[in-house]
Every structure is written in structure tokens, then in C-alpha cells.
Design brief:
The chain is an alpha/beta fold and 290 residues long. The protein is 33% helix and 13% strand. The protein is globular. The two termini are 14 Å apart.
Length: 290
């Protein structure tokens, strides 16, 4: 397909900007991501309990808000982004939603045990697990990726998912839903995110294998593979000059806002998706059509 467009056909709304740390801070972004576009809940997740890693900002924030509007009790797991996490909690509580915040590092297996224990002590059960937390580092060449960076990316994006899912499984009952976050990058082979792409590809394999493994228990496992969304991972990963062109490769000629992806998570978490497992859902504005 011809992807040659004139500059006039793409007008970015994101000025050059970058942040010096991962996973990034939403409150510093310009403009702020749109995480709620007047989403109207209908009790599709009423009385369910959901754990969402990276639930403080970006896609995780949009999912946390949508789940709460659908009646779920939400456990928001975050690294150290206290301002973002408190903003999300205050927003959910503004419409009488129910959530708690848990701060820690998903690379630490003991933290996963703490997440599960605290969730059970607070809400008594677990119905939904969203493995969303992740880091993404820009490097032009493989030789530029240090052992320390590779280790951090693998442990955050894969080990953390493995640890938390393993700890949650004994408490997941029939009808439970696990939703993992993959990425369009693993399907198109983004050349400047090699270690990140590697982890997102592994998540596809983990999702499909675990779905088959748990099918007899009627626990569903799916993944979402987003395209380019305007979230803190963008300015905390890419050089500032790359930010204005985010989304220019998609057929829709723009990056997406977090609120545009939350509904697919609601569907996968709900009982409406009772026959949906082992699937990878592509939300990418037409950039990848696999």
C-alpha cells in the first residue's frame, strides 16, 4: 500500500517534547491525553473486581475509569507516579467509583504476592486481571541496547506479567478474564524498539498458550495490540523531534487517545465475551491489518 503522503495531509497536535524517565508522567504531557470521553457505563462489570497494572495513566487510566463506570471495583497498580495515580483515584471517586492504589515494582515477585493478598483482603475476590504495565526504550541499533536495559525491559514487560498471573491464578474462578497488553510493534517489527518488540511478541505467545491451558477451567485469556496512542510512554521513549509525527503511518493519519481503546477491554472483561479466548485484538487505525 502506498504510504507516501504530503505534509499537508498530516497535521500533528503534539508539539515536540520528551521526558527523562520511564514509564513517564501524564501530568507533564502537552496536551494531556483524553482518557474519558463521557463514557456511559451500563453495569457490564457490576460487582466484579479488577486488577490493572499501570492503571494510573495512559491506557491503564482509561481502562480503570471505564471499568469503574461499569461497576467494577478497581485495584490500580503503579510504579511511583503518585500524582498520576492520585488523579486517577480522585476522578474515579468523583462518580462514586471504588478503587485502591498499590505502589510497587512489578519486576519484584514479592510485590505480585502483595497485590493479590491486598486485593483479597480488600474485596474478597479477583475476577479480572489486566497486565498493562510496561517500559519502552528507543535505541537505533541492537548494539546500543545495554544488558541493563534489556534486563529491565524483559523483567518489567514479561516477568511482571508472569509473576502476577501466576499469583492470581489460584483465586480466579470460572468466567474470569485475563487481558494482556501486546503492541502493533511486534507485528510490524519496529526497528528502533528491538527489546520492547521482543517482549510484546512473547506476550502474544504467552496469551495464546495460557488461553489453551485454562480453557477447561473456563478462564479466558486475550491480548490487545494497540497502535500509536498518546500516552506517557511516547514522550518518555522517543526523541522530542519524533513526537509531532506520531500516528502518521496509520490509515487514519493520527495517534489515538486512550479513551478510544478502553471499550475493547470492557468487552473482554465482561460476560459478553464468554466465547472469546486466545485472541489478539488490533486497535491501530488501520496501520496493521493482520
Amino acid at each position: 500500500m502506498d504510504k507516501s503522503y504530503s505534509c499537508k495531509e498530516f497535521e500533528s497536535k503534539y508539539p515536540p517534547q520528551e521526558q527523562p524517565r520511564q514509564p513517564g508522567l501524564e501530568y507533564l504531557m502537552n496536551p494531556r491525553p483524553i482518557f474519558d470521553n463521557n463514557y456511559q457505563g451500563s453495569n457490564r462489570l457490576k460487582d466484579k473486581v479488577a486488577i490493572i497494572t499501570g492503571g494510573d495513566s495512559g491506557i491503564g487510566r482509561a481502562v480503570s475509569v471505564a471499568f469503574a463506570k461499569e461497576g467494577a471495583k478497581v485495584v490500580i497498580v503503579y510504579y511511583d507516579e503518585l500524582i498520576d495515580a492520585n488523579e486517577t483515584k480522585e476522578y474515579i471517586e468523583s462518580f462514586n467509583g471504588d478503587c485502591i492504589l498499590l505502589c510497587g515494582d512489578v519486576k519484584d515477585h514479592d510485590f505480585s504476592k502483595f497485590i493479590i493478598d491486598t486485593t483479597l483482603d480488600t474485596y474478597g475476590k479477583i475476577d479480572i486481571l489486566v497486565n498493562n504495565a510496561g517500559v519502552q526504550f528507543y535505541q537505533k541499533e541492537l548494539i546500543d541496547i545495554s544488558d541493563e536495559q534489556f534486563d529491565c525491559t524483559m523483567k518489567t514487560n514479561i516477568y511482571g506479567m508472569f509473576y502476577l498471573t501466576k499469583e492470581a491464578l489460584p483465586y480466579l474462578n470460572e468466567g474470569a478474564s485475563i487481558i494482556n497488553l501486546s503492541s502493533i510493534t511486534t507485528f510490524i517489527g519496529e526497528p528502533e524498539l528491538i527489546d520492547y518488540v521482543t517482549t510484546k511478541g512473547a506476550i502474544v505467545g504467552f496469551t495464546r498458550s495460557l488461553a489453551t491451558n485454562l480453557a477447561s477451567k473456563k478462564i479466558r485469556v486475550n491480548a490487545v495490540a494497540p497502535g500509536v496512542f498518546w500516552t506517557p510512554i511516547q514522550p518518555s521513549c522517543w526523541p522530542a523531534w519524533k513526537i509531532p509525527t506520531l500516528g502518521s503511518d496509520s490509515d487514519m493519519r493520527r495517534a489515538a487517545e486512550p479513551y478510544e481503546i478502553a471499550p475493547i477491554f470492557v468487552y473482554l472483561a465482561s460476560d459478553e465475551a464468554s466465547f472469546t479466548t486466545g485472541q489478539i485484538f488490533h486497535i491501530n487505525g488501520g496501520e496493521y491489518k493482520g
